[in-house]
Amino acid sequence: MSMYPSPTGNAADPTLTSHGLRQSQELAAHLSSPEFRPKPFRVYSSPFYRCLQTIQPGVEVLKERQKSGAADIEAGACYDVRIENGLGEWFGSTTFFDHPSPATPTTLQPLFPTLLPSENHYKPLLIPSNRGETIAQLHNRIATTLSAIIAEVDAEVHALESSQPPSQKKTSKAILISSHAAPLIAMGRALTGNMPDDSSVEDFHVFTAGLSTFVRRKSSFSSFLSPSSLSNEKEDGLGTSLAQGTQLLRPGTDLGVLGVPNWKNGKGVGGGWDCVVNGDCRFLSTGAERGWHFNGDESFDTGPMDGSSSSTKVPSLATPGIPSTKL
Annotated region Disordered: where (predicted)? Predict the structure, then answer.
């Protein structure tokens, strides 16, 4: 995290340091290397400035490869970044003040013109409460967002494959997600369905500019957002399953009924996922740095749960043996 003023004018939305920018270049080299496959099919990011900075070099390289006709870029791939507030930073729950909101697409578009072709090309699924969240509510917010993202990309892949000749081979697709330490840990748990009794367990590793990969389990590709799959349970006496004030911007769409899915006890969102790469930093010249994990209730009083640069997660939404979408 940089000590310089943020271009967005938000003190809680810092830029990367020069070291973080170097890490983003090393991440870009890894994403564009022959060893990294499949290449992303869609890209989603938290709206905070440092997350967009982290993936900017990589996305720009992927766009260049796409223009040059590189064979490892999927047909129909789109590298215009989708700004999703539901993937945004975690702020602890409070009842007496509002946490700062991230910049809007209108502010971000001129700052990242190569990532955001227009301020209106994507509508977020969810806006987190400005009064923050408990740890349980954060996990449910991430599970809700991921469920909708998976369904959205599944539908887009289905439409693409339906337009192609039957003889064309179906391939796995991947989604690149750039977010923050706390949401990324929650993503690992929501994808696998493995929520520990103690949230401070160091199960999913997050480091600045690190990369994790998840592969979809064998399952049917029916809608995972059907009403029967939604959870209406209270969260251990900590309030409703989503923090009060959370806004669902697309509650009833062709994605199904947007709500908290039944993701725990090993089920996972979108059919369930397995973690095959956990916090990889081998491509970074200085290795793993600035790791983070939950640390009980004290986290609720610390304000923004920030890492010096964002981490990235690439869950593969492909089911082994069944070519389909990936997260």
Answer: 295-327
